[in-house]
From TrEMBL, chain B:
Residues 4-116 form the Rieske domain. Pfam families: Rieske (PF00355). It comes from the Bacteria. Residues 147-168 are annotated as: Disordered. InterPro entries: Rieske_2Fe-2S, Rieske_2Fe-2S_sf. Residues 154-168 have a biased composition (Basic and acidic residues). This is Rieske (2Fe-2S) protein. Keywords: 2Fe-2S, Iron, Iron-sulfur, Metal-binding.
Amino acid sequence: MGAPTMTTGGTGANRPVPEGRRAAVVDCDVHAVLPSARSLLPYLDDYWADQLVAQLAPYYEPGYHPPSSPIAERPEVTPGPDGRAGTAVDALVADVFSDGGPDFAVLNCLYGVQQIHQPRREIAHARALNDWIAREWLDADDRLRASIVVPQGTPDAAAEEIDRCAADGRFAQVLLLGQSELPYGRQINWPIWEAAERHGLPVALHIGGVFRQAPTSVGWPGTYLEWYVGQQSNLEAQLASIVSEGVLQKYPSTRIVVSELGFGWVPPFLWKFDKLWKSYRPDVPWLTERPSDLIRRHVRFTTAPSDGFERPGALDRLVDRLGSEDMLVYSSDYPHRHHSAPREIENGSSDPALIDRIRRTNAFDIYGLSVHSDL
Amino acid sequence: MTRYIVANTTDIPQGERKIVELEGRSVGIFNLDGEYYALLNRCPHAGAPLCEHGTVFGVASADGPDAPIDYERQRSLRCPWHAWEFDIRTGVSFYDPRNARVRKYEVEVVPGSPEDVVDPDGGRQDGPLVLEGYAVSVEGDVVVVDTSRRRPGRTRDQAERRRPAATA
Ligand code: FES
């Protein structure tokens, strides 16, 4: 295994790969699971550690993939010592990097510090979680990268956490959840975009939420089914906000990776956004180009779940309707189970060059991850 | 190919418009603070009577989402159907200048009464006034619309030279 390198600060868009190296195959969405709230004790300061113990260690593992439900784990994954997938680094590494696996995997730890509504507690726990990821995961295997978990309730503190973790060099992006307290385009959230751009880090918008209000656009869903399906429309609202509020003009190097939220809904969304922009352009006079052009340039979507686009020809048709071959990046969403296996997405296209883009070069454009050419 | 007298200046008060028919096409002429603009009365999107029912607004621009919004009044014509906006001076859309545009006509104000300015040798015609049964008995300045197409890259001289051949 050659020493992995990471080029930061670039704006993507088919950046050149360094001499003697090739763009790495990247699995852009892999889940490390915090085994218990107590796992954070070594990483919290005395005050917050004792607070956690005093509160009987409430565990904020979110119900995005309820344990024992079909979506939680694929049957073939290797469980950690507690019987759950994703809780032990050696088991995850063995599964994710098995034969034909990626060169790198980006860990999105979804432990729900964002659901801690006390700002200073959220800040302390986000910090502890990132340190736990760095020590117990990134130190264990140099093919692992991770997303920076940020205290979303306090955007200035989120920016500070981005500054702190970016110095490590192994955090490949910032993690935001699909459902937020205020849409991500709103100016109160700009410190997060500013910090991400400052460090050349993409921002992942991953399925999930802060649960400070109802988690779908219309209210409280009655079932998990409604929650999961409903997150897609939250992402439409987030992208509409980010584009309309001018984040992509203000921070033009911004890259967004929409993760585990599908991509089949994107073409009709872009069409509608463009269409209505023509009628309401005076509301957003700084928006001088079509929303779809901005989204094509700045936003990427992970391939799992592939939602039927793994059927022969379906991916080709979808990419045609997206109007860009640059917008999809490969993910396994390990250990989550969807209706098709992660690499089945490759069946959706008859074009090996497109698959290669999805697995390597599109990811290189946003992360700059490469390996020696002979690997 | 022709310049038509479409109105007496007093027929189109400030901020108002007049719809005329020129060579079988409906055309709207606007008076904005004494500047006259003429556009085809048909939206390139889905054919709405743009000049007849469109609203004159300004144009807004901003260098960034936190920059001041500059606003210039009386610069845009907004379609009554789906609110697309066009530069009232050029017919060009503000969001897609290359592809969406309304045909624009040159307008000038010519001193004198219509009888005085009608040129029997093919220059200015009083066609629309006649077409609309308009009494050509007004006094004062008249508004003249030129229906010839202005193509980029062709000088006025070249256009003049081509004209006899085209009409022959
Ligand atoms: S017809 Fe004019 S905007 Fe649709």
